[in-house]
């Protein structure tokens, strides 16, 4: 069997509420799972069980209380829990993509450049990057007249589609998907399912949260149920 591109080991997370006299909220207590090339692991469990927290811990937006998050980066494992900030940024640039629920809008940057930017950062010539960005925006049914406009005034669904295009522009080996289909219509949901299938076919390892049951069934190679994990702990 091929080796995992992502391994989460004995991951713990407690939030400390400093404004509430240091009250501790335990969310994860020893979570472990790994993801191999071509897999899409779907995080399941009731609202509030910690699904988004897992993605944020893996991406390094939240600091784990204990445990390891090993990502295979340029052929060597990197533990994102203990890595220095520069290494975390390099892993994010080259290896670890994240499609969040909402687009972080940068003022005055055209939609096509928002999507092309991760590619340009990695050294792709701007015109080639914009061409790839345009193809993705087109697949996600963003009209060409919007390509040159900043997404600040786009609808919620349009912004989400720009965000998806940006997340899929570079073929990240590991990709985190936080409800990428939440405000999409059936046609665009189908396109996202297709993009995920294409990523599987090229050997990406993905972890996602999908509230839409049809999408979940279409893309999941395996479920990690955090409720069961918590009860077992
Ligand atoms: N920054 C934070 N500070 C304090 N508590 C937090 C923080 N982020 C999350 N939590 C708490 O951690 C728990 C898990 O939240 P999380 O958003 O991961 O759940 P979820 O399973 O993704 O829920 P949903 O399906 O509703 O999106 C919740 O009780 C939440 O209140």
Automatic annotation (TrEMBL):
* GO molecular-function terms, A-Z: ATP binding; ATP hydrolysis activity; lyase activity
Q: Could you name the domain of life of the organism this protein comes from?
A: Bacteria
Classification via Pfam families: ABC_tran
Q: Which InterPro entries match?
A: AAA+_ATPase, ABC_transporter-like_ATP-bd, ABC_transporter-like_CS, CP_lyase_PhnL, P-loop_NTPase
> What keywords are annotated for this sequence in UniProt?
ATP-binding, Lyase, Nucleotide-binding
Ranges for the ABC transporter domain?
Answer: 6-231
Instruction: Extract the NCBIfam families matched here.
Output: CP_lyasePhnL
Family, per the entry? Answer: Belongs to the ABC transporter superfamily.
Question: What's the protein called, per UniProt?
Answer: Phosphonate C-P lyase system protein PhnL
């Amino acid at each position: 069997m091929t080796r995992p591109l992502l391994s989460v080991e004995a991951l713990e997370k407690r939030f400390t509420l400093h404004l509430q006299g240091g009250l501790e909220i335990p969310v994860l207590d020893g979570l472990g799972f790994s993801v191999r090339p071509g897999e899409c692991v779907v995080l399941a469990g009731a609202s509030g069980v910690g699904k988004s927290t897992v993605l944020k811990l893996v991406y390094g937006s939240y600091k784990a209380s204990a445990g390891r998050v090993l990502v295979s980066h340029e052929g060597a494992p990197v533990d994102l829990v203990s890595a220095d900030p520069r290494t975390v940024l390099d892993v994010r640039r080259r290896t670890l993509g994240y499609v969040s629920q909402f687009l972080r809008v940068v003022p005055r940057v055209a939609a096509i450049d928002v999507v092309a930017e991760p590619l340009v950062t990695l050294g792709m010539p701007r015109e080639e990057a914009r061409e790839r960005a345009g193809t993705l925006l087109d697949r996600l049914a963003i009209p060409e007249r919007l390509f040159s406009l900043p997404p600040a005034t786009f609808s919620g669904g349009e912004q989400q589609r720009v965000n998806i295009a940006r997340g899929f522009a570079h073929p990240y080996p590991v990709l985190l998907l936080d409800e990428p289909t939440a405000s999409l219509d059936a046609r665009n949901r189908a396109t996202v399912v297709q993009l995920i299938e294409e990523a599987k076919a090229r050997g990406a390892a993905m972890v996602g949260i999908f509230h839409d049951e049809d999408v979940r069934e279409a893309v999941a190679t395996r479920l990690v149920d955090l409720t069961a994990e918590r009860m077992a702990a």
